[in-house]
Inverse folding.
């Protein structure tokens, strides 16, 4: 065999001093099958967890299978106990009491399970032009034109006048009808085409096409009446019951592999279930951790994290305070010594829109998870900016566990920006940094991620919990 050529001094120095993103195919070639197997479980989770209610219910079922029990404030706890705290059916806290003194801190990961969608208004049903529609109010940051002319399913809950709760799910089974937002045909779309992209479809045009057959020939608003009759027969609801409902229109259909090599997944809701699922599987893989660990899957991130189920809720600190009190510890010491990964997605560099990215500081698909020291917009406004010491600590954890990671920002400085739950956690005196999976077409009805990046997120969570 020919003798291997020795690297020049310059090449050796470059390897030592220069930073270069490495793909998962360079660093973890032996993990291909594990990545594919893990992705199959994730796809099943996605198909059952399109809304925060769906995700919470699915995650609780997974946790119960692993021996987690419901937590009640004030109850006694001991090392090894596994708990879940269900916050109003729309956010969830999973935690395991560790062997170490609680004042050593908690290893926390926090993701969100809400995604952009179309919510029904309180009085949604109307009839026009021989059709019945349901009016919506879009939730989170969407490009409105992307939500026309695609199949939509209805998920949610209706609470009737007598307090009876009815779960609603229409459009996911193969035999179900779906809903649809009309768009104008190109032959008559000259006025629409002249508008800027952002205003080509207005919010009040995002109405769900829901029926076209009248109840009878004589009754006025017969199509609307027939639609309400069908809902009454199926769920026992009347029109006023929409006012005590949470009904969401989301893309219908299942997660699908992308590419001939099946290396990617297209689905609704990767943001942020692609981080929530590794959180869940990570904590469920533990038996008796040294450190107390907690996984948070929160609601309302896409609209500012407000409300009783968003990350701003006191429930987070209430749980920590209650555990500290039960174990006779100082809750302030617990928080001060706790560490958190805000597990939220990053924008994957897209060469089709290269103008929006600064390549040196963008996340590349199949180069592992993205570590974002700060998010926000413009001059780092509305952000948590993790300290150098904490970022170094996370780097060491990932490197020691052979987690493929990369540093990233959300596009060019003046191009836009975005936030995560990190700032709300760090405000509680907890070191926090953003770590997540790069996503293509973020906030579109269907987003794309790489299976290898997803698997490295799982590895990262487990490494963080057990460091």
């Amino acid at each position: 065999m020919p003798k291997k050529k020795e690297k020049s001094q310059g090449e050796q120095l470059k390897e030592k001093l220069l930073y270069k993103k490495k793909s998962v195919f360079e660093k973890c070639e032996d993990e291909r099958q594990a990545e594919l197997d893990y992705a199959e479980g994730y796809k099943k989770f996605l198909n059952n967890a399109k809304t925060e209610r769906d995700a919470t219910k699915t995650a609780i079922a997974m946790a119960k299978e692993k021996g987690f029990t419901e937590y009640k404030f004030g109850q006694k706890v001991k090392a090894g106990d596994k708990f879940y705290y269900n916050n109003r059916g729309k956010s969830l806290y999973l935690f395991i009491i560790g062997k170490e003194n609680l004042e050593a801190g908690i290893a926390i990961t926090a993701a969100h399970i809400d995604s952009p969608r179309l919510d029904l208004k309180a009085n949604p049903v109307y009839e026009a032009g021989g059709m019945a529609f349901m009016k919506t109010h879009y939730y989170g940051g969407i490009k409105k034109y992307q939500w026309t002319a695609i199949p939509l399913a209805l998920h949610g809950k209706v609470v009737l006048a007598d307090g009876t709760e009815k779960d609603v799910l229409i459009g996911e089974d193969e035999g179900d009808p779906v809903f649809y937002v009309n768009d104008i045909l190109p032959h008559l779309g000259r006025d629409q085409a002249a508008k800027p992209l952002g205003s080509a479809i207005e919010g009040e045009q995002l109405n769900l096409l829901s029926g076209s057959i009248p109840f009878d020939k004589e009754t006025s608003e017969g199509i609307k009446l027939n639609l309400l009759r069908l809902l009454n027969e199926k769920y026992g609801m009347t029109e006023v019951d929409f006012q005590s409902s949470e009904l969401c229109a989301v893309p219908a259909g299942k997660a699908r592999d992308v590419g001939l090599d099946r290396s990617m997944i297209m689905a609704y809701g990767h943001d942020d279930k692609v981080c929530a699922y590794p959180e869940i599987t990570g904590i469920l893989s533990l038996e008796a951790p040294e450190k107390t660990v907690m996984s948070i899957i929160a609601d309302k991130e896409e609209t500012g994290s407000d409300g009783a189920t968003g990350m701003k809720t006191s429930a987070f600190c209430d749980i920590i305070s209650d555990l500290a009190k039960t174990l006779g510890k100082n809750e302030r010491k617990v928080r001060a010594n706790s560490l958190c990964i805000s597990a939220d997605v990053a924008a994957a560099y897209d060469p089709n829109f290269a103008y929006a990215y600064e390549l040196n500081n963008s996340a590349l698909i199949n180069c592992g998870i993205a570590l974002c020291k700060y998010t926000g917009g413009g001059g780092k406004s509305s952000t948590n900016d993790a300290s150098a010491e904490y970022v170094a600590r996370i780097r060491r954890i990932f490197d020691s566990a052979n987690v493929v990671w990369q540093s990233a920002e959300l596009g060019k400085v003046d191009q836009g920006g975005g936030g995560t739950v990190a700032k709300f956690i760090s405000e509680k005196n907890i070191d926090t940094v953003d770590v997540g999976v790069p996503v293509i077409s973020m906030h579109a009805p269907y987003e794309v991620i790489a299976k290898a990046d997803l698997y490295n997120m799982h590895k990262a969570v487990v490494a963080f919990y057990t460091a």
Remarks:
- The domain at 19-115+268-466 is CATH 3.40.630.10 (Aminopeptidase).
- The mean pLDDT is 96.
- The chain has twelve helices and 23 strands.
- The CA atoms of residues 132 and 456 lie 46 Å apart.
